[in-house]
Input
Amino acid sequence: MATNSSDLPKTRSVTSNLDELFLGNVYDATVVRRLLSYVYVYRSTFFVALIGVIFYIAAVVAQPLIIAWGIDGFIAPDPGETRWGNLRTVSLIFLFDVLVMGISQYIQFRALARLSTRLLFDLRRDMFNHLQGQSATFFERNEVGRLMSRVQNDVLALQEFTEISVPTLADILMLAVIAVTLFVTDFNLALVAVGPIPLMVITMAIWQRKAKPTFLRIRTAISSVNGNLQEGITGVRVTQSMNRQNRNLRKFDTLNTEHRDAAIKGGFLSGMLMPPIEVISMASVALVVVVGGQQVLNGTLELGILTAFILYLLRFFEPIRAMTMQFTQFQKAMASGARIFELLDIEPDLVDAPDAKQMPPINGKIEFKNVSFEYVPGLPVLNDISLTIEPGESVAFVGLTGAGKTTLVSLVQRLYDVTSGQVLIDGVDVRSVTRASLAGQMSSVLQEPFLYSEAVSANIKFNHVNVSEKSVINSATAVGAHDFISKLPTGYSSILEQRGANLSMGQRALVSMARAIVADPRILILDEATANMDSETEYQLQEALKEVLHGRTSLLIAHRLSTITSADKIVVLEHGKIVEVGKHEQLIANKSVYSKLYAMNFGEPIR
Output
């Protein structure tokens, strides 16, 4: 039964700012909240790391107190006081504290390593799965290089963030604990110690304002370098054939120089931050030594307490220095996290209807009812197409480039949704069934076959992993691929190189053809499938296809019209409209669009 088109999902426009480059803030609540949802899955590992942090902080905070106990109790004791234990006891307790610190730090970093690698795995898996669910329109509007950058570089940046996040949290907790300890130990001396800190905050704020544009410039420059590098490597054969190496090198040098200059300035700014922070830190220690030393001389402060105070102060500034060094890394991680979750939040513009059902076994009837389609709103590619294809028919679509041939057959596979009208298979609107159940009963062979770096048999089976080896061989034999596959080093078990580079273009097309028919699809789409074959291979395949296509609906797209003369029906498209339909002989006799195309194909004069 046909489904009312008004009840079905419409194509939504894909709008994304994937090209946006920004450095980000040091802390982004949205990114952290989304990341915590991944951490929650491994909460036990996170809590192990947190326990390690707590024991580490406790051990670190205890050390100055143990040293003060040793100094005031046994090295420079007050004659009027008696202390428990002796210097050996202090030494043993100090060694035990160091052991606890080392073990807790090991537990912390081991747990963090496990957590960060698992997060990396989950994020990349989710992004890959999410990208696979996007429509063809999405990939037409977004560069593959930038998508790869998000899956690889941005996830890696976020992994680095997770590795330093718990230590940074430990640094913050340590700052708080040490600050409380300082004020409890001697309130007035603590005020002296923290006095220079506002100057440190002002210094960092000024540096941040100066550095942020530079680091943004670095990110923009390296993006341009990588893009140009990818383009240059991908098009190296064209570059060499046109002898354009020097011009390409000059362009690359310009972009590379821009990145170098930005990186040098970034390094200069990074180097400018630490010296004033160190000076301010040591100034604070010097003030404590002067003021505290005077108190020791006056007898109002014990030497051990002053020593502990100075050690605490040095520990206090260590986390500040560490966080200062990680300042830019936090910004990059927040920006990477924002880009990752921006990508994950993009809704696929082609989804199954909420009440979508499984597609029943296909018989093969296809109907286009007043179909119109637009890639860009207001610019129609197909206009009011109506056509019926009976089960088992072989139908060829011809027309000049841009006539809408590939778009029309793509609607049958539901790679896109119609802008208006309906596409029906056996009377069922393709939008009313799940796309998986629809795609599982049809196959296609494209002009540029894509093969994976797997065994030949795995490439033929593809998604139909339960297909027998006999069926694989039968499919290859049916399309004329068996002979050359058998001559490969290990036959059907031979591993193909990247994109099937160890096969000729014609051989790749034959393997793709075998893949298309191995699961016995009811609808077969051949989009310029023989374009990369030599004349002999093409002729052999055409003879084999007579048997292969028998009994199944086939949609053929070809510019070489000699390959489709035997089709049951030829549909001629022009400017997104059907202008002729008929058999080859009938259309030739009409002396209209098809006859002109056929004449141009064979170099005959057009009358």
About this structure: The radius of gyration is 35 Å. The CA atoms of residues 62 and 220 lie 47 Å apart. The chain has three domains: 24-186+329-349, 187-300, 353-441+563-607. DSSP finds 20 helices and ten strands in the chain.
